[in-house]
């Protein structure tokens, strides 16, 4: 278990676990019906890959506001719901997260083609140098 000064809360079916640090959240995420997370790329992608409903709370104070950009882009696609610390109660109460879409299946084909083409070009340039 992780360490926390906060006390876990349970009301009806809602269970809220809070920790300052936990080596892995995999088990908790797998058991969750809904994940509320910061809008970091790793957390967002991991939650979506697991097929979980996701509400993200972006840290708007970060340089370049990159968390908000990611949150807005994912919300525009219907993959996440976005909240702020000021409106999270309203967002959760609205139940919009129930209507979120599942992400499309991961297709690495285009990336594979780019890598293979690049490798082919590298091999071709090495042959020319010899």
UniProtKB/TrEMBL annotation:
For this protein, the record's PANTHER family field holds: GLYCOSYL TRANSFERASE-RELATED, N-ACETYLGLUCOSAMINYLDIPHOSPHODOLICHOL N-ACETYLGLUCOSAMINYLTRANSFERASE
Superkingdom is Eukaryota
**GO MF, any single term:** N-acetylglucosaminyldiphosphodolichol N-acetylglucosaminyltransferase activity
Keywords for this protein: Endoplasmic reticulum, Glycosyltransferase, Transferase
GO process terms (BP) = dolichol-linked oligosaccharide biosynthetic process
Q: Is tRNA processing one of the keywords UniProt gives this record?
A: no
Q: What is this protein called?
A: UDP-N-acetylglucosamine transferase subunit ALG13
- Main subcellular localization, coarse class? endoplasmic reticulum
**A GO CC term attached to the entry:** endoplasmic reticulum
Similarity comment: Belongs to the glycosyltransferase 28 family.
Q: What class of enzyme is it?
A: transferase
TM spans, by residue? none
Q: Could you read off the lineage of the organism from its UniProt record? A: Eukaryota, Cryptophyceae, Pyrenomonadales, Geminigeraceae, Guillardia
Enzyme Commission no: 2.4.1.141
> Where does the Glycosyl transferase family 28 C-terminal domain lie?
14-91
Q: Which cell locations does it reside in?
A: Endoplasmic reticulum
According to its UniProt record, what is one Pfam family this protein matches? Glyco_tran_28_C
Source organism: Guillardia theta (Cryptophyte)
